[in-house]
Amino acid sequence: MEKRSVDDLEVDMDEFDEFEGLDERLEDTRFWPGLKRTMDESCRSWSRRLEQRYDDDDEDEEEQSRSRMGIVQVGLLVIVLGSIFLAFLDSFSPTRHSNSYYEEEDGYRDKDLGSEWEAGGVGKEEVHVHIVRDLEYRQDSPAASATFLPLDSTASSSSLTAVATGAVTTPQRVFQVDAPVLGAGGFIFDGDNTTASTLGASENGTTCSVTLMEFSFAESFGKPFVGNYTPPACMGNSNTVMMNFSVTSKGTQFDRLAVMYFGDTEAFRTSTAEPKRNGIAWEYVKDMSHMMYFWKSPQKVIFDLPNQTTANLTGTYNTTLTATFFTAKQAVSPASMIIPISARLGINASQPSVFSLPATNATNIITSFPRNANRAIVTISSTGQANEEFWWSNALQSDVLTYNSSGGTLFGFSPFREVQLMIDGQMAGVQWPFPVIFTGGVVPAFWSPMVGIDAFDLKEGEVDISPWLPMLCDGNPHTFSINVVGLDDNGSTSATLSKTVGSSWLVTGKIFIWQDSETSITTGTAPQVSASPPIIAVSQVLGKNSTGANDTVQYTVSVSRKLSITSTLTTQNQSVTSSWSQTLSHTDNGTFLAGGNIQTNFITTTGRDVSTMGAATPYTCSYSFPMFANSTAVQLANGTTTFNATINRSKIMDINGRGVAPTGLQPFAAIPQSADLVMTLAGTTRVDSQNGTAFLLLDSQNGNNSFSFGNTVQSLRFGGKSAAGALGMEPDVELYFRNVAVNNGSMVSDTERIVGKSSVGVESIGDVVRGMDAAVGRNAQGVLMPGFGGGGE
């Protein structure tokens, strides 16, 4: 296939003649049906052009970087179109509520729209734009994200998304693009395509599965599901556990954050998709083998999915959670003990054990740390909510009052966040979070039917605390704390880490511990901690309009940090030097334009974590989170509000050695085409990229005239690194690749490669692959069949 150059993606405004006279058509509702069709066609054209950037199977990193510049050009187009909208903006006096107005809950109601279009109004909290008019706080319930109510909230909604799927009466399949996982009967692609019965099939036809939960979440604030788990007799010596979370929903509802616990310990964090009138369904299959400590003994299972229904919020979440046990050729080496860092409300009170910062103090005093530990790693789960959901778009603290006279207070503490792990008051490690965007985030049309990166599986960061074991194994109580901080700047060029952030961050932690024999006691030297304050630089430039009012803000943020902890560790079998080090960098170039109605962020976060234990192969994790986001809000004289948004982001991971989580190599050790290769691999690489554009028009007088559309392209490449490759001597080997394009709620293309060979290139999920020279293939249930070469049902 012909390779497309970045030049091919340059935008020529002559291609968009259909936008001439756009202001008259927006003001006159008679033109809206034709406008919907025209903008839908443009959206599809953008989608095709974005998709073409991934056609070359051998695209290297430099070309990926150039492709990201292509979407920036599209983002600039959106700014231009937003400026066209602004040119016809009538004079008005917008109002914004201050942060304190949203301290308890994070939903909204536009009082001009009435109950028929509940939560239709949009503010800075929802699409990281500034202006909002006539908003009244929505008292019904908090939501997982302070975002638009789906356009399906009106029975006769004319949204383009609804039109695209309106003829379908069966639930729409929603999915997260992810690397395959291993089931007892083969590969599992997209949990939404795999039934529990297929997942549980083993080679001899038997199954070993247990149902953990069957529950409908309707009125569930403060009322989590509580059940009991008993290890099934058939699990025997199984080394692998796959958990399947399946959900159906119908109607109108916000996206919700959900957390599963074993007693006081968080096990799985996810979020929901926003339902449609005809219903949606999804499944997510997760390898939970690293939690084997819990699976081997009876547990109290708590699943917290806060939801609430009203006359307009009609969607309930009908869920099933199962676990399947089997023995795989390659498996994790699970910890022998797991200790929670949590609010500890599960075992005694049957309530969720998450800390909510900054309202609570996320601290545990561990009084019974095992004295025979030879390795320990802390995982941290952290999610920004309410005022902190779009933390990556927040303003510098010195700029939060920039538009106070016209629009209210911006969310502050900068677009930088650091999650800190403290042991006895000393810094043990940090996590600089990846910006997860939920399915109602920014503009919901981005995320249907393909959700955002990590939306169904919010990943945890890892901090190796093995250098602390000589101190932790002394038999005394020790304090573990989790903090979340941003930046407090002086209005000029310097800043320090803030003492707090907005409300709220939901955090927990787990201590994974590997142990020697019961009689052994770990000793050694006290940890030597080098954790100087980060190097921070900021700048901001304020611009005023012709009336002297604040109009534009341009700002930059740069943060870098290095830390290391080292000790001599004496365990049952060895005396070694143990160390943990981190090197991190964050930059952000942000802009507010047009009185805060237009916002743009260019963000890059990079880091490298290294853990060593004597002469053993070190564990390294290198990561990069580049992101471009633009949003434009315009309110016209007739009360109509339009929103344009562009997002281009990636999550890039390069891991050598083994931490807590499964490596992802297990599926490829199970098939002949890659089984021998996997034995030589020492690490993995993963590049996950999403980009897209979305548009929303809200009619404050008649919700039936409101509509939205969007397109998103996602590319995922998962590779394995040999021991030599880990040293930079050889490139990694592609194990899995997938590229998906969706437009207006429908999938338009899906291309897949397994172990470097094409396996799927179909128009809909789950189609049988026929007549292809594939190393492997996928049947209608999404299960990889080793040696599949086409043909047959």
UniProtKB/TrEMBL annotation:
It comes from Phialocephala subalpina. Residues 203-526 form the Peptide N-acetyl-beta-D-glucosaminyl asparaginase amidase A N-terminal domain. The chain crosses the membrane at residues 71-89. Keywords: Membrane, Transmembrane, Transmembrane helix. It holds the Pfam family PNGase_A_C. This is Related to peptide-n4-(N-acetyl-beta-d-glucosaminyl) asparaginase amidase N.
